[in-house]
Design a protein that fits this description.
Blueprint lengths: L1 E5 L3 H12 L9 E6 L5 H7 L16 E4 L9 E4 L4 E5 L6 E6 L3 E6 L3
Parallel strand pairs: 1-2
Antiparallel strand pairs: 2-7, 3-4, 5-6, 6-7
Helix pairs in contact: 1-2
Length: 114
């Protein structure tokens, strides 16, 4: 899912993440990219969730890249590189992993394909 130029608060994003982490909602979500109209406070969101920073000394813990099929836009998949901009979050109930990148105007959640 991709949402462009929308209005969200930090609390909206925190609530979304808590629901995904607790497996309360968004069970089958694979990707979510949000581009906001207004600046978001990244630090506030990061303080509200548990995450693991990227550790370059253990690259085997995560894939190097993530391919997104956007057949509704293009026949060529998009490849995102999971560098230090992405932190890892885990669902409590089943341990499913996702990679999260936050910017002042963007939010990317990529759920790991097991």
């Amino acid at each position: 899912m991709r949402l462009d130029t929308i209005t969200l608060t930090e609390q909206d994003l925190i609530q979304f993440l808590h629901k995904w982490i607790s497996n309360e909602a968004y069970h089958n979500l694979e990707t979510l990219s949000i581009y906001t109209e207004h600046r978001i406070n990244i630090d506030l969101i990061r303080q509200a969730i548990e995450f693991e920073e990227y550790d370059p000394s253990h690259p085997e813990k995560r894939p190097a890249d993530y391919r997104i099929d956007q057949s509704y836009v293009s026949s060529t998949p998009i490849t995102l590189y999971l560098n230090q901009d992405f932190v890892e979050i885990k669902r409590i109930t089943d341990g499913k992993r996702a990679f999260l990148a936050l910017g002042p105007f963007d939010f990317d959640l990529l759920v790991h394909k097991d």
